[in-house]
Structures are given as C-alpha cells and as structure tokens.
DNA sequence: GCGACAG
DNA sequence: ATCTTGTCGC
C-alpha cells in the first residue's frame, strides 16, 4: 500500500482542536502536562530567543512574538495572530486564555526559537504549569517565565541593584527568583518553564535586558501587540 | 469562611 | 489585561 499523502496533524494542532473550554477540562490538562515538564539544563547554546505577549480588545486578542538573535539581541522579525478569546481570565489558568493564539503565532516564526520568553510564570504556579511551562511542553521548546508580579510563593526583598535576586519558594521548594533587572526598579519574577534550569533562566533574562525593566523580546512583543490592536482592532 | 490572585 | 490625569522622582 502506498504511503499516505496525508500527513498526521502536528501535535499542537491536535491539541488546539481540543483546547479546554472550561476549568474542569483545563485542570485535567494541567494534571497531565505538569508531569511532562523537565527542568534540565539547556541542550543547546541559545542562538534565537523569542518573546511573546498579547493585547486584548473586546473579545479578541492580538498575540505577537518578537524574534531576536542571541546574545547580540539583533531584532529579526515580529509575527502575530488575531483570534477570538474563548476562555476567561482566571488566576492559575492564564495559558488556557492565551494559549491558542500563542501557539499559532510561534508557528509563524521563520526560525524555530531556542528559547521562548513569556510574560507570566513558568513553574512558579500552583500546579507547576504556568503559561511558560504549558506552552514550552506543547511545543517542546525551552521556555522561561518572566512575570511582572507574583502568583504564588514567598520571598524576601532582593538587593536594589541590577542583577541581584532572592529566591521564590513554595511548599519548601525553590521555584523561581525575584530578579532586579534595573537598579531600584520593581523586580520581575523569573521561573523556568521547560527544558531549562533556574540559573540559566536568570542568566538569559539578564542578558536580554538592557535599559528597561523587561527583557527586550517580551518588551517589544508587548509594544507591538498594543500598537497592532489600536491600529487593526479598532474598527 | 477569609484572603490571595500571572495577564 | 483594560480604563484613565495628573504627578512624583531621577
């Protein structure tokens, strides 16, 4: 029998097709995917890093991924997706709201990133599957969570100088770091997402940050997504 | 029951 | 996240 010309759908397409529609289904998915998170050191020196962020307007979302060469931080491209939002925002379930748009967006990049930087948590999440871990597992790409505020965990105030940090702990475990990316500026919450270790995540976030609080790939994705929303999602 | 709560 | 004016500080 001849080999079928029909290619089986990509894993992420299959998953998008059955994307959870409610909390109950989402919890089942988290229970399954959390076991697939692997916090191992990077298997390859990062050459391409992509930041991801989304802007909302009505019931629609504009998701953007900005690709940069690393460690030079030369901007390569921005790709985006506009879709209807079907899942509400519920603390602990952010990835189910932005996930579909994020996955479609990352697949549009002309180069597969070596690391994904997210505006949200990695394993620093009540079920160990923040948005960075969730997407990292689905796409099998190393990922980092770089949130602007805390979801869970305890920590002390990190030294005010850039590069200083204190650890985020939860139930006796070290799950992330509260990292100062600029002198005297509110720190960011860094946690490994998938296929990376905390120390490497901290290092990459710092090396992607220059004169602003957020690492450049995420900062750019944030700016571009908001601009596109105001230009394309207005009428 | 009360407080906390990524984006 | 989004809605929004002025304002404090380097």
Notable traits:
235 residues, alpha+beta, archaeoglobus fulgidus dsm 4304 fold, 6 helices, 29% helix, DNA-binding
CATH-wise, what's the superfamily?
A: archaeoglobus fulgidus dsm 4304 superfamily
Q: What distance separates the N and C termini?
A: 53 Å
Return the string of H and E elements. Answer: HHEEEHEHEEEEHH
Question: Which whole number gives the mean pLDDT?
Answer: 93
For this structure, the quaternary state is single chain
CATH topology: archaeoglobus fulgidus dsm 4304 fold
Structural class: alpha+beta
Strand order of the largest sheet: 3-2-1-4-5-8-7-6
How many discrete domains? 1
Categorize the overall geometry: globular
How many helices? 6
Indicate the percent of residues in helices. 25-40%
Cα-atom radius of gyration: 17 Å
**Which sheet architecture does the biggest sheet show?**
8 strands, mixed
The CATH architecture assignment turns out to be: 2-Layer Sandwich
Query: Which CATH C-level class is it?
Result: Alpha Beta
* Residue windows where pLDDT falls under 50 for at least 5 positions: 1-9
Strand content: 25-35%
In total, how many beta strands?
8
């Amino acid at each position: 029998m001849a080999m079928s010309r029909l290619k089986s759908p990509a894993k992420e397409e299959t998953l998008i097709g059955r994307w959870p529609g409610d909390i109950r289904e989402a919890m089942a998915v988290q229970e399954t995917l959390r076991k697939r998170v692997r916090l191992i050191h990077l298997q390859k020196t990062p050459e391409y890093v992509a930041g991801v962020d989304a802007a909302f307007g009505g019931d629609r979302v504009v998701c953007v991924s900005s690709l940069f060469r690393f460690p030079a931080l030369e901007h390569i491209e921005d790709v985006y997706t506009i879709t209807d939002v079907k899942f509400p925002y519920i603390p602990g379930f952010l990835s189910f709201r932005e996930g579909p748009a994020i996955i479609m967006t990352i697949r549009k990049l002309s180069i597969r990133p070596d690391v994904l930087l997210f505006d949200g948590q990695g394993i620093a999440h009540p079920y160990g599957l923040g948005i960075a871990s969730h997407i990292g597992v689905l796409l099998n790409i190393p990922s980092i969570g770089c949130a602007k505020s805390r979801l869970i965990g305890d920590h002390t105030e990190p030294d005010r100088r850039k590069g200083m940090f204190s650890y985020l702990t939860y139930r006796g475990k070290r799950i992330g770091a509260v990292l100062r990316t600029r002198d005297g500026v509110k720190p960011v919450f860094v946690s490994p997402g998938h296929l990376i270790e905390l120390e490497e995540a901290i290092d990459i976030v710092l090396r992607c940050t220059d004169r602003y609080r957020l690492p450049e790939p995420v900062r750019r994705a944030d700016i571009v997504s908001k601009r596109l929303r105001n230009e394309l999602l207005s009428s």
